[in-house]
Amino acid sequence: GGIITQTPKFLIGQEGQKLTLKCQQNFNHDTMYWYRQDSGKGLRLIYYSITENDLQKGDLSEGYDASREKKSSFSLTVTSAQKNEMAVFLCASSIVRGGSQNTLYFGAGTRLSVL
Amino acid sequence: TQTVSQSDAHVTVFEGDSVELRCNYSYGGSIYLSWYIQHHGRGLQFLLKYYSGNPVVQGVNGFEAEFSKSDSSFHLRKASVHWSDSAVYFCAVRRTGGYKVVFGSGTRLLVSP
Questions:
Q1: CATH second-level architecture of B3-112?
Q2: Which residue from A33, A43, A72, B65 has the least number of CB within 10 angstroms?
Q3: Of A31, A90, A94, Cβ closest to residue B43
Q4: Is the peptide bond before A8 cis (omega within 30 degrees of 0)?
Q5: Count of structural domains, chain A
Q6: Nearest CB to B105 within list A42, A50, A103
Q7: In which domain, by residue range, is A72 found?
Q8: What's the CATH number where A49 sits?
């Protein structure tokens, strides 16, 4: 089996700060995703990447940048943290073909708080 | 644009009861439908999925879901819940051939002893 590792687990930032979240997967999956989860709400797609060096905007990409320089890693940058912002950022990966196609494997999340 | 609607934000049942969590989708083409579970403080875990064939699909831990094209639904069911089934459940849809996965807002299931 594989694992998705998100770092850091907790991130506390200041208003206006640029913050970077990292995600590593050892499934050798092609596609990776970043979702934002606000308390009591569903998941909103920020960015996804079909393969290495590919980036696709999701529904909530404004205010974020992403980078997929290696197949195994996908990072997300909050370009300017908003005061009192609190959310969990979830990274996921998936294969393109095969029996597990369409199954997303998630990391445990990074919990962001902005002071 | 595909959308997923989970009409019940909270469902409370007693241990041993049956439960149905509802999911309705809006999309005219060929899609994959899935259910995921999220325990408190964790990431989501895959439960089951449907693409074609038998409309009733079995998942882990006794969960099953039934696809209905006429109702645009993919409801999740369990015949007898356990306290450990308390979690948030998410329905998700992906267009065939696409990569974007859209999630519903989730249903929080609380199983009382």
A1: Sandwich (2.60)
A2: A72
A3: A90
A4: yes
A5: 1
A6: A42
A7: 4-78+85-114
A8: 2.60.40.10
